[in-house]
Design brief:
3-stranded antiparallel β-sheet, 7-stranded mixed β-sheet, 2 domains, Aspartate Aminotransferase, domain 2, single chain
Length: 388
């Protein structure tokens, strides 16, 4: 198979940190309040602006709090788990590595007794009808390492007694989430917005705030996870008074991204861009025999973390080490060609490819990548077959 001629203009398909929005440049950081205390008036105003613009773009319900927290999405999830779990039994959903990590933390770190883990293999979802929302529920909206997402929020009861804690980092800004069904929602700047790492966002419903103000965890609480003091929510966190020192460069960068979102039409435009990327991938997969989506059900297929499995008989006939070598060799070859960076699947997932289709990725770049994937698979198959 001959090598394609056209290349993606932007070869950055990493699932996190993700590519910058079209038109981004370092000039976007010119107004950053660098070298200043993040507690000074102007820098704090910048952080508050990140919160306000994010809440407006996402149409957060009235009364929801939104704050900037440490340690990216992982820190935001851990903060919610450590601060709010304990009063009720917990259902935790795990169908890929991050859900499994939250289950491990709940059982082995917090050592809660009444925990049900509803699990499913990569490519599938647990039976959502078995979830009891009168218990606390912990889940990822989109399984970043499997490319499988929940289809909607219909399985979450509006009159639930428990809290829903949702790791939504690769869905926020790419899906129209039913926030009224979600009590604690976490994400990071580095995913759909293409921002920088280390900063998390945490949105809380009034029900979540009530839990924080009425529940004192039985375990020691690290300062970095503390959201309430003396039975009252620490309101400053949700006004830009961060628990630890944020990067004002990163804050300026995400402000630029949020302004870009506003300029192209807001959340609907972001959703349309990501769905267009998935549509381009779907057309190619449908006409290509050697590849398939890891998510078997189109209704649960992610438009952001697009996870692919190789189904060619030559590949499926290889042993485990042989299968693991193929996507790594493909990724190395495409990187050497300057065509695609960082597209191997997650280390905990079955061997395959993972291509970010989030809203900062241009569909034209996805379309230019696809012939290269065909060429690369054929080249690696021939290379490894000869070596054998």
């Amino acid at each position: 198979m001959s090598k394609p001629h056209a290349r993606p203009r932007n070869p950055q398909f990493s699932t996190g940190p993700c590519t910058k929005h079209p038109g981004w440049s370092l000039n976007a950081l010119a107004g950053a309040e660098i070298g200043r205390s993040h507690r000074a008036k102007q820098p704090k105003a910048k952080l508050a602006e990140v919160i306000a613009r994010s809440a407006e773009l996402l149409n957060l319900p009235d009364g929801y709090r939104l704050g900037i927290v440490p340690a990216s999405d992982t820190g935001a999830v851990e903060m919610a788990l450590w601060s709010m779990l304990g009063p009720r039994g917990v259902d935790v959903l795990a169908w890929e590595s991050f859900g499994a990590a939250w289950a491990t933390d709940i059982v082995k770190q917090l050592k809660l007794d009444d925990v049900r883990t509803l699990s499913a293999p990569y490519g599938e979802l647990p039976d959502l009808s078995q979830v009891d929302t009168d218990r606390d529920v912990v889940f990822t909206w989109n399984g970043t390492t499997s490319g499988v997402r929940v289809p909607d929020g219909d399985w979450i009861a509006a009159d639930r007694e428990g809290l829903t804690i949702c790791d939504a980092t690769s869905s926020v800004f790419a899906k129209d989430l039913p926030f009224d069904k979600l009590d604690a929602v976490t994400w990071s700047w580095q995913k759909v917005l293409g921002g920088e790492g280390a900063h998390g966002m945490l949105a809380l419903s009034q029900r979540a705030v009530a839990r924080l103000e009425s529940h004192t965890p039985s375990w020691p609480m690290p300062k970095i996870f503390t959201l309430a003091k003396g039975g009252r929510l620490i309101e400053g966190i949700f006004r830009g008074e961060t628990i630890n020192t944020p990067s004002l460069l990163a804050a300026e960068d995400v402000l630029d991204a949020l302004k870009w979102v506003e300029g192209i039409g807001g959340l609907p435009a972001l959703i349309a861009r990501s769905e267009a990327n998935l549509a381009a991938m779907t057309g190619w997969v449908d006409r290509t025999g050697w590849i398939d989506f890891m998510a078997a059900d189109p209704a649960t297929r992610s438009s952001t973390s697009i996870c692919l499995k190789i189904v060619d008989p030559w590949f499926t006939g290889l042993d485990g080490d042989g299968q693991a070598a193929v996507p790594k060799r493909m990724a190395a070859l495409l990187e050497a060609e300057g065509v695609a960076f960082d597209i191997t699947g997650h280390r905990d997932a079955p061997p395959g490819l993972r291509i970010w289709g989030g809203s900062t990725v241009e569909t034209s770049d996805i379309e230019a990548l696809l012939p290269w994937l065909d060429w690369c698979f054929a080249a690696v198959r021939d290379e490894l077959a000869k070596a054998a």
